[in-house]
Amino acid sequence: LDPSYPKERLAFILEDTQTPVLLTQEKLVENLPPHQAQVICLDLLLEENTQNNQENPVNQTTLDNLIYVIYTSGSTGQPKGVMIPHRGICNQLHWRQTTFRLTDADKVLLTISFSFDPSVWQIFWPLCFGGQLIIPRPGGHQDAAYLVEAIAEPAITVLALVPSILRVLLEEKGIENCRLLRHVTCGGEALPVELIERFFAQLNLDNVLHNCYGPTEASIDTTFWTCQRGSNYTIAPIGRPITNAQIYILDENLQPVPVGESGELYIGGIGLARGYLNRPELTKEKFIIDPFSSQEGARLYRTGDLARYNSDGNVEFVGRIDH
């Protein structure tokens, strides 16, 4: 729950989840909407000299238990609670580590509110694999001048940005001091080729910028493409699937479309959400039986996105079906 959200949205989420326990800070309690949850202020707990048991409880969590519910904006305006199991996030983190190899010298800057799912890898990738997590001041991720300083001074090496923020940063004074970056992820918006070329021109960093694609319903990122200098693309591809993910581009009859033709993008694999909280009909509509899998219970997620295969095997995002 982002404290900056409107009270109506917070109230809806608390009611929809029937949250039994709410972890927060004392200063935020008075701004909460009416709710039934037991409130625990973590800052007060730290101040209390309690004689609590110092032993960690036995971990009985399984890969199929939920790790979180994150709310996305619905087309009707009502938020949808996406239920993500541990399995998908474990896969996401292991894919990142296998592909990009974080070390104890890496510093990851948190650049998004924790109410959005990219924050999950930004927080837990360094914490799970020995890197350093750098948390900016509240609201700092929206201040371009501050962000450039926050990247340059502690020598940030890992960064995630939406393309529109990357564009602003590349125009900011001091961006030339950010050349220790070795892993920059773009996602959430289309990445223009012109912006890729500007990145190379400003920072002169090869094999660092990655265009990623993935809906919340598929545990963060599903595909990625490492941006290349002077490529012949007019639209930056979203690339190929990550480990244990499948991509299908299908027509209205769930048949694969030819290379170069547009179709709806479907996602399969172990990263899929359990579904939408308290929305069984929507879950049934968006998560369908996988007609291409022999595995019992295998499903596909209908993204509502149009895409096509390029001749080199990379996927290109075309747009939304409903636009």
From TrEMBL:
Keyword Phosphoprotein among record annotations: yes
Biological process, per Gene Ontology: amino acid activation for nonribosomal peptide biosynthetic process; secondary metabolite biosynthetic process
* Regions that span the bilayer: none
Q: Which InterPro entries match?
A: AA_adenyl_dom, AMP-binding, AMP-binding_CS, AMP-dep_synth/lig_dom, ANL_N_sf
**Pfam family name, one:** AMP-binding
Annotated Gene Ontology cellular component terms: cytosol
| Record keywords, A-Z | Phosphopantetheine, Phosphoprotein
Q: Which GO terms describe its molecular function?
A: phosphopantetheine binding
AMP-dependent synthetase/ligase domain: from which residue to which, for each copy? 1-277
Kindly give the PANTHER family that the UniProt entry links to this protein: FATTY ACID SYNTHASE (PTHR45527:SF1), NONRIBOSOMAL PEPTIDE SYNTHETASE (PTHR45527)
- Protein name in the entry: Non-ribosomal peptide synthetase
In its UniProt entry, the species of origin is given as Nostoc sp. MV6
The encoding gene? NRPS
